[in-house]
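Dear colleague,

Following up on Tuesday's group meeting, I ran the structure prediction for the two-component complex that the binding team flagged. I've pasted the input sequences exactly as they went in, so you can double-check that nothing got truncated or mislabelled along the way. The structure tokens for the whole assembly follow below. Feel free to forward this to whoever is handling the docking comparison.

Inputs:
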Amino acid sequence: MELRVRALETVLTQKGYVDPAALDELIDAYQTRVGPRNGARVVARAWVDAAFKDWLRRDATAAVASLGYQGRQGEHLVAVENSPGRHNMVVCTLCSCYPWPVLGLPPVWYKSTAYRARAVRDPRGVLADFGVTLPESTEIRVWDSTAEVRYLVIPERPPGTEGLDEEALAALVTRDSMIGTGLAGTPAP
Amino acid sequence: MTYRSHAELGGLPVDLAVVPEPEGDPFHAPWEPRAHALTIAMGATGVWNLDMLRSVRETLPDYRQRSYYEIWYGALVALLERHGLATADELTAGAAQGPARPVPRVLDAGQVWPMLRKGAPTLRPASRSARFAVGDRVRTSAVPATGHTRLPAYARGRVGIVECLRGAHVYPDAHAAGLGEAPEWLYAVVFTAAELWGEDAAAGQSVAIDLWEPYLEPALHERGVFTWPEWADALGRAIAAARGRGDPDDGTTYYQHWLAALESLVAAKGVGTERELLHFREAWDRAAQRTPHGAPVALADADLAGPG
């Protein structure tokens, strides 16, 4: 594949369809500028600021943009909040739709046959693969991203984090907890 | 011609574990970020749209044998060849052998970040009011896809409840087919696990799917308008009547019988009169007559008013 992609790039550049400097910018953007730390800051803000969380739940696109994150594959964001009785999990069974501005590009498992096939049918089994077991009484809602709406899960704030500031809280927010295949971490003792 | 998407993975009975992965670089080989960037840069030329790209990806014959970015690469090559932007020989040789074709735009480095920040919103002004409201019971289309669509196979012919309206959005089925944006209302519809997977599915589980209005019909039976025995009786009578008129009875007219049965029940139950049904059928006829071939047919006030 290395050589085939190199050949492709050469042809497209020689024909003038693609500017090599633009390619470098694109690669840099998705390796350094967008990633799950963006989403973690959004969640941490929602945990400490009730008005922000309310805004996030009503209009996630605007609330997230107020922190500087917006654009491609996040044009229409919806935030879904976990609670003791309700757990949310996000999948795209038809391709790989994922909220790029807040989570970056998806991990391999998110795009895998195993996840796309099983998340809608057996979410508890998928959670077990991530080492997560939820109480039987917890309802599970899976969101299949079939349109241009992109979902961000707001995980539950872990117990024992009352004294932490936003930055310390953001460090507890894992990528998987914002997809719904994990829970937010607990602070080191 | 049948349309075959290989991307319909939801609910397949696969015996595969999901393998977690640490956060970090989303790419796993040096060529992957380049294939990703090339796809975005070529998309920015405006020769095709995202729905066309998804359609080409999901119909790659060896879709399920390819890694994710191999799918991206394969679809990009297919589109380049289809639009005459590059030939297979050129891509094998790794050198341009003929002149470039003009493209609408070429993305330059300074435009990259502003373009990514702007994105490509798909929300559009609605040209008519929404057909469904929050709480409505709706049944998804059971008709197999004839082109790119975003109604997953596992949710066809199922009854769900409208959870919220998301506004009118670019309709991918039309957009992928080159018929323009043709915006349609988009709904989040919730299905119970039992509805999707059968009565032995785990309780307390549901799936929400974003679905466009053309995928949905009111679920009349589920609203209690008629019972299944009444339906079976009406369908039996519709089929018998059609046979009496010389219907071939080879299955090709099956849904015509459904329609006839539904019309008779709607009239019999007073949901609508035969006169009303005829009125709307004639209005749709007029709308279809005045609509250019290929464009979506929409009902206008003038169509309902009568022959113009």
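Residues 5 and 11 of chain A are 10 Å apart (CA to CA).

Cheers,
M.
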